[in-house]
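WARN no homologs supplied; continuing
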Amino acid sequence: MSETKDLLITNVRPVDDQRDGSETVDIRIRDGIIVDVGPVAKSSDKAGTGQPESEGDVPVFDAKGAFVSPGWMDMHVHLREPGFEHKETVRTGCAAAANGGFTAVACMPNTNPPIHTRDVVSYVLKQAQGLPVDVYPIGTVSKERAGKSIAEMADMKEGGAVAFSDDGDPVQDSRLMRTALEYAAMLDVPVINHEEDLPLSRPGHMHEGRVSTRLGLAGTPSIAEEIMIARDILLSELTGGHVHVAHISTRKGVELVREAKSKGLKVTTEVCPHHFDLTDEEIERQQFHTNWKMHPPLRTEDDVQAMIEGLQDGTIDAICTDHAPHSVDEKEVEFIYAPNGIIGLETAWSIICKRLLSSGKLSLQDVIRKLAIHPRTILRLPVPKLAVGEPANLTLFDTDTEWICTPESIRSRSINTPWLNEKLKGRARAVYNNSQFVLVGSDESK
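OK structure emitted
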């Protein structure tokens, strides 16, 4: 990635907590710091290429009326390194993030070895040095991610871990979860739990319901997620610890979180685009294609509507992707043998445009809060601001660009997405962070 300490972005519309994208401004960056946000002075990009021109020694990028917001953050991704570099690496995962409009990610610890000690936290941070995307490791709750004894949470936090989770698997042992939440309360960090009661859910391969019965596939019932959410809410109430419900997917789960919030408990949650766009009917329509296999599984249309309602009323705090890369040979097997998970960093914005913005379910400001502000607030991280004197951490985007998600357009090392070769609408245009300017779809985003 090339350094771009100085940059003038013209004809851009800011969206943040105070601005709704109706105003057009120029943003001047010097030494990576925003030094001016003011009225439009001039247009550039004379060739109409989208590439930055220059004003003296300063590159100029004409945004042509695109929006700009604080840089987006995905608080739930799997970068796979160390141990599974054939699926993804920190570098390729961050390239995918930048190509999808994200300037920060928090990575889950189900690697090999797991992110269960300070030295593994340090390794991940070292791999991320110099990239335009900030990487925040999430440490394990249990040693070896084995679910038996508590990991060295305080040491990992001191080394840079921002939260704790055994994601990929739940913290099944209630005593262990209680201990983790007691430590988390002292450390002021959230515990992110993959909400699944294993004896109830395994060996489910899709949502348990009409479709699974018709197809003859073992299903994972909604109650397996909901029982674990209820347990964790009660443990949060007992300990004062912050529970963050990972990738929520059921109506009852949303209702439980809504009730917990009404009581003032430290409970937050997130949802993935595939859970407010796709249903279990897709498994049949797509003839058991494994790019529609994930966990939690795709659920019913009623659950999809519940996710949107939860986003609308604030029950669901954040939008994440659960970006889970798998190689082609791992996914090209029978449905019941395929691993769970899809990539999502590069398609998330288009699905948000489709299901939340074009339908009028959420405003642009609401969406930016759930993409840029709330994930960082949950993780106790500084929130970027579109203000003079602030480090420039920006995402430029539109809601109307049509594009096709081809293997060539994907920067992730894997291509396991249900939207492969689909025409999508709405795309990030560029990101600026760590004094680097990356155009989406450019060679620099690789």
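Confidence is low (pLDDT under 50) at residues 43-49.
OK
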